[in-house]
Amino acid sequence: MGRRYFCDYCDRSFQDNLHNRKKHLNGIQHQRSKKAWYDVFRDASEIFVEEESKKHCRRFLQTGHCDFGPSCRFSHMTAEDMDALKGRVEVPPYLSVLSTIYHQVGLRCVSCPHPSIHPQLQMEIIQGSLSGADSPYH
User: For residues 74 and 77, what is the distance between their CA atoms, to the nearest angstrom?
Assistant: First the structure.
């Protein structure tokens, strides 16, 4: 029977040879599945900037469905969706100052797009209950 290649993005398998693998990896279905997978991990600010620059999809606004789905070049976000996304992107001014301090000492911050490695430590620093001597990083 031979070896088989399983694509995690597309959730399908096929005979593993150079021709089949190259054909699959360059195929539109694989490209869409791969994009959909990585879109899950995108930062809210990236999504907001991208969606804000797009025009609204008339078909999606009229029917609530678009045949192109996530690969549509127009935006499928409503005004409420954009407001919610904007709320996730905007950061209070005190957090931007904290962000600068965090980066200077090598910690991840609340306003950064990346998740914090130590959320409990992060909350203690924000509340001011952790002094420099008690920090596990010193």
Answer: 9
Residue-wise pLDDT for 59-82, tens only, equals 988 998 888 887 788 998 888 888
Residues 79 and 60 in one domain: yes
Q: What is the pTM of this model?
A: 0.47
One domain for residues 23 and 35:
yes
How far apart CA 122 and CA 96 sit, in angstroms, is 14
Q: Domain span at residue 125?
A: 93-134
Task: Determine the distance from the C-alpha atom of residue 10 to the mean position of all C-alpha atoms in its chain, rounded to a whole number.
Answer: 19
Q: Count the Cβ atoms, other than its own, within 10 Å of residue 76.
A: 19
The predicted-structure confidence for 16-59, as pLDDT tens digits, reads as follows 999 999 999 999 889 888 988 888 888 888 888 888 899 999 99
